[in-house]
Design goal:
Layout lengths: L2 H18 L6 H4 L2 E9 L16 H14 E14 L2 E12 L5 E13 L2 E8 L2 H8 L12 H6 L1
Length: 156
């Protein structure tokens, strides 16, 4: 296999594990990462999505995954298109995540851009509907904690 085919194969395996486990196995990503891997998200650490802050090492990327899974629950992830050229692979698909605090679901088209060196990921950038994700992470104005109606909360 050439370098492009190897990189696509690595990603297909990781995305398949991530999807089938409903994000229960973040180790599938950690095995791909070089120690100096960098992660960048379109929301770049927006307050509602603070886990998306830039990360500059494998350890920081582990923290990103921990924070993602603390705040969100995967509904589905179907990443089915892989476009490779040189050391880069672009992956396209559809994902849905439920915010644990609000119960709202963010469903979006997703584009991930990967860069590899010697069979390890050294760069990852993600693009998705940021407005939809922020809306899902934001409690309704009339709701109390975790989306609970204040009238219901007062009776508890």
């Amino acid at each position: 296999m050439n370098e492009e085919d190897v990189n696509v194969s690595l990603l297909r395996s990781a995305y398949a594990e991530w999807s089938s486990s409903k994000a229960a196995n973040p180790q599938c990503w950690m095995e791909l990462m070089a120690d100096d891997a960098k992660l960048r998200s379109l929301t770049d650490g927006a307050p509602e999505l603070s886990f998306t802050a830039r990360r500059t090492s494998k350890g920081e990327i582990k923290a990103y995954l921990d924070d993602l899974l603390r705040d969100w629950e995967m509904v589905h992830a179907h990443m089915g298109e892989y476009l490779a050229q040189g050391d880069r692979v672009v992956v396209l698909g559809d994902v849905a995540w439920r915010n644990r605090a609000t119960g709202k679901i963010a469903e979006t088209r997703k584009v991930d851009v990967w860069r590899f060196r010697d069979g390890k990921a050294i760069g990852y950038e993600e693009f998705f509907d940021t407005a939809g994700a922020i809306a899902a992470a934001t409690p309704d104005a009339a709701a109390g904690p975790a989306g609970v109606d204040p009238a219901v909360q007062a009776r508890e």
